[in-house]
Amino acid sequence: MSGGSRKSGGEAWLWPALWVVVLCLGLGGLGLGYVWLKNQVDELGRQIKQREQRLAELRLLNERLRRQLATLQSPRFLEQRVRELQLGLVPAHPAQVWRLPEPQGWPEPQTASGRTPATGPGPG
Fold first, then answer.
1. Which of 28, 36, 70, 114 suits 97 as a labelling partner, its CA being 20 to 30 A distant?
2. Could you list the residue ranges forming a coiled coil in this record (predicted)?
3. By C-alpha distance, which of 67, 95, 90, 63 is closest to 79?
């Protein structure tokens, strides 16, 4: 009973070698994936830092512009600009000012018959 049931010497190493290649490729892929993810984390960290710095700059600029707006709207500054531009503006005389009373509320809507409509839910 010689030899037909045994694998030949050339095929015996094929399957273990294939498993080693698959294992190496899998581990290599995992390693590359790990490095790529670490790179992504580093890049996102840099982007977050840049955006936080930009946010701080914009907050400072916003505060500076808020103070500048308050200065430009101040009566003292406006009077000074009127004098600089020689616009000839003067404060209004009390007779030129009309004071209107503040309305107490809106009048109730009325129907054609002169009654106020019902505010409850309708029939049905």
1. 70
2. 41-68
3. 90
Eight-state DSSP code of residue 119: -
Structural domain includes residue 61: yes
Distances (CA, A) of 23 to 20, 28, 51, 87: 5, 8, 42, 87
Number of domain units in the chain: 1
Its domain, for residue 52, covers 45-82
- Tell me how far apart the alpha carbons of residues 34 and 46 are, in angstroms, rounded to a whole number: 19
Residue 96 in tokens: 């030129």
Q: Is residue 71 part of a domain?
A: yes
| pLDDT, tens digit, 9 for 90 and up, residues 79-113 | 999 999 998 888 889 999 999 988 887 777 777 77
Residue type, 57: E
15, 74, 116, 117 from 112: Cα distances, Å: 96, 51, 9, 10
Give domain status of residue 103, yes or no. no
Q: Which pair of structure tokens corresponds to residue 33? A: 């994936």
Please state the pTM of the whole predicted model: 0.50
